[in-house]
Design a protein that fits this description.
It holds the Pfam family ADH_Fe_C. Belongs to the iron-containing alcohol dehydrogenase family. By secondary structure, the protein is of the alpha/beta class. It contains 14 helices and 8 strands. Bound molecules: nicotinamide-adenine-dinucleotide.
Length: about 350
């Protein structure tokens, strides 16, 4: 066993089916008496229904959460927090709603209860990405980490299949980069391998039958593990590329992760043989980059950045922006190779195959 450092994030998780009925006891544990409920406009009805379990503890529902946590939306929600004298927030939804709850907690240190309905994994991290003037800035702070997460698989049954697939692969991306992170450690690697296995095993079943509760449950469990990975160790090339492209072209978050991940894996594979061995084992494939690409494509995901809305002629400038600030990656960041990587992703081509040389096998 090599030397390692492991530091765990605090947080309480309630996992199962029908678990939202436990909201009142979780609110009591936090001594929360005046709760502001948060959601996107699309999930306002669902959030109101769920909040019904909290009765008179609910002081309002703010349903204007948006992707990438724009600071103007947070400022608007902060007025609600003050007007209602809220003493806690309940976020019902995916990463966008969780992001708003985190932005409020960062400013107020109010406790958060999160009821996740996608596989984004944000609820398990002390990380917040906020957008101001078209630029997304990421910060990490203990106040941002939600106090309680209630996973209720029943709420994921309505997640459309296409978003289930891309959101699941978004979760997998966190665990993949945790396997080759500079701070990688055996505990997080265990979670990463389990998370990848649970998500990639369940996505084809969900695709075939979105109402498959057992597959939904495995995917949600896997997504939690992957979120813990994201919140525990540093990320690398894949997340940097997605962050850059998302900011430059406002591309849909989960789809973007899905289109880029196979290429980032192919790029890093030669420099991370131990991680590739674990990833291959978790996915039960020989070549993880090709395996990820094939899985996503087979399940109907859009694999070209062009198809997601990236404009022609921007590959080089995106790479330059992604290289503008230094960050750690297992393989040295080589501009021509990154341009080739992004060019393949732009056109939706398969990742550069490593079939002929699989050093981790
Ligand atoms: P999302 O929260 O934007 O949800 C996408 C759409 O699906 C929304 O309209 C939402 O209302 C709807 N939806 C969600 N769950 C549903 C359900 N069960 N049934 C029906 N509709 C449902 O998407 P996302 O991919 O979960 O989150 C993306 C955001 O999360 C981005 O802003 C990203 O940066 C952030 N994120 C942050 C972290 C972190 O740790 N800070 C991690 C992952 C993602």
């Amino acid at each position: 066993m090599e030397d390692f450092v492991y530091s765990g994030n605090p947080g309480r998780v309630v996992f199962g089916s029908g678990t939202v009925v436990r909201l009142p006891e979780e609110a009591d544990r936090l001594k929360a008496k005046r709760i502001l409920v948060l959601s996107t406009p699309e999930q306002a009805g669902q959030a109101t229904n769920i909040a019904g379990h909290l009765g008179s503890r609910v002081v309002g529902t703010y349903s204007k959460a948006q992707m990438h946590t724009p600071v103007e939306v947070t400022a608007d929600a902060m007025r609600w927090i003050e007007d209602c004298s809220a003493d806690a927030v309940l976020s019902v939804g995916g990463g966008s709603t969780t992001g708003l709850g985190k932005a409020i907690a960062f400013r107020t240190d109010l406790p958060q209860i999160v009821v996740p309905t996608t596989y984004a994994g944000s609820e398990a991290t002390p990380i917040l990405g906020e957008t101001e003037g078209g630029r997304k800035v990421t910060k990490s702070d203990p106040r941002i980490l939600p106090e309680v997460v209630i996973y209720d698989v029943d709420l994921t049954l309505t997640l459309p299949v296409a978003l289930s697939v891309t959101s699941g692969i978004n979760a997998v991306a966190h665990a993949v980069e945790a396997l080759y992170a500079r701070e990688a450690n055996p505990i997080i690697s265990l979670m990463a391998e389990q998370g990848i296995s649970a998500v990639t095993r369940s996505l084809p079943l969900i695709h075939a039958d979105p109402g498959n509760r057992s597959a939904r449950s495995d995917a949600l469990y896997g997504a939690w593990l992957c979120g813990v990975c994201l919140g525990s160790v540093g990320m690398a090339l894949h997340h940097k590329l997605c962050h850059t492209l998302g900011g430059m072209f406002n591309l849909p978050h989960a789809s973007l992760h899905t289109a880029v991940l196979p290429h980032a894996v192919a790029y890093n594979a030669p420099a991370a043989p131990a991680a590739m061995k674990r990833l291959s084992r978790a996915m039960a494939v020989d070549d993880p980059a090709t395996g990820l690409f094939d899985l996503a494509k087979r399940l109907g995901a859009t694999m070209s950045l062009k198809g997601l809305g990236m404009l022609d002629g921007n590959v080089e400038s995106a790479v330059e922006q992604a290289l503008a600030s230094a960050y750690w990656n297992p393989r040295e960041l080589e501009k021509p190779a990154l341009i080739a990587l992004l060019d393949r992703a732009f056109h939706g081509e398969a990742p550069l195959g490593a079939r002929s040389e699989l050093p981790w096998r």
